[in-house]
TrEMBL record:
The keyword Mitochondrion does not apply. It catalyses: glutathione + H2O = L-cysteinylglycine + L-glutamate; an N-terminal (5-L-glutamyl)-[peptide] + an alpha-amino acid = 5-L-glutamyl amino acid + an N-terminal L-alpha-aminoacyl-[peptide]; an S-substituted glutathione + H2O = an S-substituted L-cysteinylglycine + L-glutamate. This is Glutathione hydrolase proenzyme. Its EC number is 2.3.2.2, 3.4.19.13. It comes from the Bacteria. Cleaved by autocatalysis into a large and a small subunit.
Length: 553
């Protein structure tokens, strides 16, 4: 009897845990970051240890996109018990922040005040996230999982063409701050090809984190330097800001599209809500059987409505109450769908008035990890704009974010990505600014996807298109590569990459009343993994638009 019970127990645990992937996979925006992740898996680390290694490595080798001076959202799936959780490592507004801190006496936004320099920086969440991940989910000590990043920072690495292009775009602001210029520029200029980026101060900060966990960053000599450096350059951080910063574990947003379970980012990201609302609206259309122009029209009409709700309602859940049950409800979506005409675009201005939403580049970063136990991480990390605020705190090598710009600086005034908001996303002390970052899992009984991308407000439309591709049975190499189109309520236009819309589609959309805007360039840098349990196969893909690397091993 006892052995029967044991057998039954083992069987039900195996069933619960499911089969294991035949291989592990990592897709990230930089080959050295992907390599750092595998180095840690090879040492017996799990996907969460690898995530610490990849995130820390990206902070060193892709400094324009994310880092210790920034934040992000990490979506976790633990195979052992099926636990799914979102680590919210979003930056918080300093306690001295005020609703109108970026406005002049006449109430007008002060140009670039929320974008350049330390006043634009929220309190970083990334160091706390790394410590939290290692302590609560990892198998290895931080000392091990941070080792590759520390090595990259100390020994340096030769930058690629992407880095040089990014510096070119933020050269002016990096040149303004001596500690930033000394690290990222070469004699005050955009470096020449072959430039070796060495960051010994950052290596010491990573070592402090490795030795003392979160206290290594938010307390002690690092904290002293952060406070002194920020305040000397016009910032308003206080000791209390650093001491009270906490990572928050939040329940992911969950929805369903046909047979796909969608697990995605919860507020203070708008990503999961807008994604699920969009898919709910689309779920009644036979998209793959419609002519392509009609399908694209319907997708745009769904985005128009879901992005509007983002602008109207969403913000930090610890500060504002949001009608999430309504926004995520299939019945609410059915009501929105009823007002969609297949032959006409609805002008955004005809939807009940609200604040609005806008575009994005190649900053911020995403990585996806699957280990051989079936643990998964989808992480989108950011310092907001390219090289964040451009301000490096002297003596730390830590480049600070300019995430404060993701708040609604003033109702109706668009941020860097054209997004506007109202009081739900107004600045308040200690509050988290609304984000579009959308790390996502897509799950059917046979197939599991781990994905995400940078791209500001376009992140959510990119992940929508990938979810539709996944549901239609396409493989990750296509999700990440397919040309993209986008609509975000306001501005009321379909933006599109070269080759995204055929001539006939453009004409058909124009006839329906859409305004079309050719961007003339690409956007996004999606990193995706597919575990096909039916075929017992793992695939990974890195967006051909970026210089990343996807490895299955
Ligand atoms: O959290 C957000 O939505 C933005 N800070 C993300 C910025 C971004 O993706 C820039 N990338 N191109």
């Amino acid at each position: 009897m006892r052995s029967f019970l044991l057998l039954w127990l083992a069987w039900s645990v195996a069933l619960w845990a499911g089969p294991k992937p035949p291989q592990a996979a990592i897709a990230s925006a930089h080959p050295l970051a992907t390599a750092a992740g595998f180095e840690i898996l090879d040492q017996g680390g799990n996907a969460f240890d690898a995530a610490v290694a990849v995130a820390a490595a990206l902070a060193v080798v892709e400094p324009a996109g994310s880092g210790l001076g920034g934040g992000g959202f990490l979506l976790l799936h633990r195979a052992r018990d099926g636990r799914q959780v979102m680590l919210d490592a979003r930056e918080t507004a300093p306690l001295a922040a005020r609703r109108d801190m970026y406005l002049d006496a006449a109430g007008n936004p002060i140009p670039r005040a929320s974008i350049d320099g330390p006043l634009a920086a929220g309190i970083p969440g990334m160091p706390a996230a790394l410590a939290h991940l290692a302590e609560n989910y990892g198998r290895l000590p931080l000392r091990c999982s941070l080792a590759p990043a520390i090595r990259y920072a100390r020994e340096g690495f030769v930058v690629g063409p992407r880095y040089l292009e990014q510096v070119e775009r933020r050269h002016a602001v990096l040149g303004r701050y001596p500690a930033a210029a000394a690290i990222f520029l070469e004699k005050g200029q955009v470096p020449r090809p072959g430039f070796r980026l060495v960051q010994p101060d950052l290596a010491r900060v990573l070592e402090a984190l490795a030795a003392r966990g979160r206290a290594g960053f938010y307390d002690g000599w690092v904290a002293e330097r952060l406070l002194a450096g920020v305040r000397a350059a016009g910032g308003v951080w206080s000791r209390a800001d650093l001491a009270r910063y906490r990572v928050v574990e939040r329940r992911p947003v969950v929805g369903r599209y046909h047979n796909v379970r969608v697990v995605s980012a919860a507020p203070p990201s708008s990503g999961g809500v807008v994604l699920v609302e969009t898919l709910n609206i689309l779920s009644a259309y036979p998209l793959t059987h419609l002519d392509p122009a009609t399908a694209k029209h319907l997708i745009v009409e769904a985005w128009r409505r879901a992005y509007r709700d983002q602008a109207l309602y969403l913000g930090d859940p610890d500060f504002v109450s949001m009608p999430l049950r309504r926004l995520l409800s299939p019945d609410y979506a059915a009501g929105l769908r009823a007002a969609i005409r297949p032959d006409r675009a609805l002008p955004s201005a005809w939807l009940a008035a609200g604040p609005e939403a806008g575009g994005a580049g190649a900053d911020t970063t995403h990585f996806s990890i699957l280990d051989r136990d079936g643990n998964r991480v989808a992480a989108t990390l950011s310092i907001n704009y390219l090289f964040g605020s451009g301000f490096v705190v002297p003596g730390t090598g830590v480049l600070l974010n300019d995430e404060m710009d993701d708040f609604a600086i003033k109702p109706g005034v668009p941020n860097l990505y054209g997004l506007v908001g109202g009081s739900a996303n107004a600045i308040a002390p200690g509050k988290r600014m609304l984000s579009s970052m959308t790390p996502t899992f897509l799950e059917t009984p046979d197939r599991i996807a781990v994905l995400g991308t940078p791209g500001g407000s376009r992140i959510i439309s990119m992940v929508t298109l990938a979810a539709l591709d996944f549901a239609a049975g396409f493989r990750p190499a296509l999700w990440v590569a397919w040309p993209r189109f986008h609509h975000q309520y306001l501005p009321d236009e379909i933006q599109y990459e070269p080759d995204a819309l055929s001539g006939a589609e453009r004409r058909a959309l124009h006839r329906r009343g859409h305004r079309l805007k050719a961007l003339g360039r690409t956007y996004g840098n999606m990193q995706a993994i597919l575990w096909d349990r039916f075929l017992d196969r793992v695939e990974a893909a890195s967006d051909p638009r970026g210089g990343g690397s996807a490895v299955v091993r």
